[in-house]
Amino acid sequence: MSIAAKYYPNEPEQPVVKVTQIPGPESKKAIESLGKVFDSRPVYFVADYEKSNGNYIADVDGNVYLDLYAQIASIALGYNNPALIEAAKSPEMIRAIVERPALGNFPGKDLEGILKNLLKVAPKGQDHIWSGLSGADANELAFKAAFMWYQGQKRGYNTAWTAEENESTMKNQAPGSPDLAVISFKRAFHGRLFASASVTASKPVHKIDLPSFKWPKAEFPAYKYPLEANAEYNKAEDARCLEIVENIIKTWQVPVAALIIEPVQSEGGDNHASAEFFQGLRDVTLKHGVVFIVDEVQTGVGATGSFWAHEHFNITPPPDLVTFSKKFQSAGYWFHNPEFIPAAPYRQFNTWCGDPARMILAGAIAKEIVDNDLVSKAKEVGDYLYGKLEELQAKYPRHLQNLRGKGRATFIAWDLESAEKRNEFLYRLKQNGVNCGGCAEVSVRLRPTLTFEKKHVDIFVSVVAKVLADFV
Amino acid sequence: MSIAAKYYPNEPEQPVVKVTQIPGPESKKAIESLGKVFDSRPVYFVADYEKSNGNYIADVDGNVYLDLYAQIASIALGYNNPALIEAAKSPEMIRAIVERPALGNFPGKDLEGILKNLLKVAPKGQDHIWSGLSGADANELAFKAAFMWYQGQKRGYNTAWTAEENESTMKNQAPGSPDLAVISFKRAFHGRLFASASVTASKPVHKIDLPSFKWPKAEFPAYKYPLEANAEYNKAEDARCLEIVENIIKTWQVPVAALIIEPVQSEGGDNHASAEFFQGLRDVTLKHGVVFIVDEVQTGVGATGSFWAHEHFNITPPPDLVTFSKKFQSAGYWFHNPEFIPAAPYRQFNTWCGDPARMILAGAIAKEIVDNDLVSKAKEVGDYLYGKLEELQAKYPRHLQNLRGKGRATFIAWDLESAEKRNEFLYRLKQNGVNCGGCAEVSVRLRPTLTFEKKHVDIFVSVVAKVLADFV
């Protein structure tokens, strides 16, 4: 039995589009009304989640779209999943909603079990967790852990702070508030708070007008596609980029305490890099005592054909900190070295220290993925999808440039000729009942759920073919 | 009928303490086990939320404490509140848990109603909301809005960014990433992410080892108590502190774009300031074009005898941005000037843009507070409590110094002689069945829920009296 059939016996057979322009008239009215209290300008359409089912999202005009965007890559199992509804109705969940504890001071007796459910799917080599609330929050909490560890290495893990440190930090001055940097990559996206925006470098709109830490950006490899035909070029590109990273670490005006990277740069254009490149980063960070942080916020939870995307690379030793959010619903970071827990308590701390309601949901998601082997299934479906897209590419090479994500399950993207054409293409997909997202300026990114199957691939591919048939 | 009796027919009559040391043996075991996967060093005891009821929190040793700490001031209505349980079981909540939308792109049709429920209790003068996930997140989102507005004033609200701005921001350099400051106050607490930690200045443990923005700290008035007997001194203190604020704004090395302040500095010691001081800040921020942000994360939602604490001050015009979290369960900021929505969309934006599950709960909390007039009731209970504490103060002046929060409902605090004595006092309260928190170094802060009544006051005061009877 297919997983979609198991979860979603009433999933629509195909998209339904009842309007010619999207948003339709009812969505438009709702967007205008919502706009009086909320910034509704980025709204594509107003959804009807009661009527959404499986891989299909419904809107208030009665349209039903096959969803390959899935809430900006943050829905793992489709809409109205019965196992998650059951988790949402459980007494444990109701308690987590109504009695939200300050987890650091007054955890409930069920917290340990909740965390252990999450740890069952920790990345290879990781056995601790610290919980946060969003991707940006997870990355900034990871930076905190990294900076505390880095300074702890210098002064001694158990060494008390000096009076000078205590006094200077209250004035935001060194040595208590040291000048340290996190290195990241051009085209990276790690969030939009102040430290996370300082390592983000995909689009000006994320950053303009915000004061930022003056942290450096290295270059992420820019491969030529198809990979097989450009192996030598791409290998040289790895070496070039690794050299830039090491040079920055050695010469930056303040010490570089940490490096953060996505296994696939997602918001920045679905830019892939090789296992050799990631191992090279591990080597160079170890050599220079730099904390190695992998941001799995968008790539994690199965969509690349491995529970965590960086597991494809077999990085040895494993990364120091791995952050997560989005499809996991809960957020935070994984780690294995207990020295990433500072010697003094109350340093990595805040009122809530995460949200047990979202952790319970994450546990339920993890269980469904494991029990139903959804990662392997996504890989199979992704390979099938990639093959179909290669066929389309042969027919429409101008509109399917740099097709990428082979062997990465459904984590697939390609480029169009221009931003205008990409946007027009995405709009026409919607008009034909497919909700799909872009990334960077000219790319289409596919981010279906883990319940996306071959039958959904066929519908998607036929809509793409239909749109491309008269796409200029 | 009393509100506690209405909500909590089975609320315990009094605390139960079954152990001599806290944490008890079962808590100790659970803390040790939890410690293998989570930093459990700050845990006071492991709670049993199933058995917690109303104003009483239970632990795994069978102890039942009268709770005046309420999850670091973040539970509004007590434990296992039937109205909130009903909200948690609603189809709307289950949908919000299972189908977490990217609210900015694909809001559900119920979002407008959810937001309008929150706006019913917006601070006087505010009619817009932007939602976040925690107090630190709310403050940083407010900073983003403030910086965008401030730069928009300079370049023109509708003016496009220059090529130089677009290019420089990708390198974290001005003019795209401008050097701007937020002014805050010594002893302030606004969170522990990087920008929020840069405005926090209550304890080194919140800040040590984190790179910070080199933002200035003004002085928060340090009043002499009782206020009536020190009116002249305190008035001069207001003037002194206002002058410092204005001097910093005029002379700081980078432009000061925003000012953030708590209506009562909470974590930093329950430091109060007068309505005149707050009006003075409004005047000086207006004069210099500085965004005025009031942080109501801990003070909001009724505990001071007004739904939002700064409403006591009748600030005119109202603050530009008011942040909230904790007892509201949802987080974000209120505002009224539509220019705090940037001219271009996608600037104040992220994947989730808040959590509708927590917003639904906030709406239910707000409804209960309004329908049952809980703010007035808190005021009445607080006045009663303050009177009882004044009586104890007369008897034990050494252990009840600087009693403060008169006329601020249950938002009451006082000082002991030293940190050691404060900590010993709090521990002995626990041994006698009262869970209570501290703030700053030597203060006790009371943060009961809005269902705390005179009968609970009597129990609390009798335990304090018992502890103080042989307190050296």
UniProtKB/TrEMBL annotation, chains A, B:
One of its GO terms (molecular function) is pyridoxal phosphate binding. It catalyses: 4-aminobutanoate + 2-oxoglutarate = succinate semialdehyde + L-glutamate. InterPro entries: 4NH2But_aminotransferase_euk, Aminotrans_3, Aminotrans_3_PPA_site, PyrdxlP-dep_Trfase, PyrdxlP-dep_Trfase_major, PyrdxlP-dep_Trfase_small. Its cofactor is pyridoxal 5'-phosphate. CDD domains: OAT_like (cd00610). GO terms for cellular component: mitochondrion. Keywords: Aminotransferase, Pyridoxal phosphate, Transferase. Its EC number is 2.6.1.19. It is an enzyme of class 2 (transferase). Pfam families: Aminotran_3. One of its GO terms (biological process) is gamma-aminobutyric acid catabolic process. It comes from the Eukaryota. The keyword Transferase applies. Homodimer and homotetramer. Belongs to the class-III pyridoxal-phosphate-dependent aminotransferase family. This is 4-aminobutyrate aminotransferase. It comes from Cyberlindnera jadinii (strain ATCC 18201 / CBS 1600 / BCRC 20928 / JCM 3617 / NBRC 0987 / NRRL Y-1542).
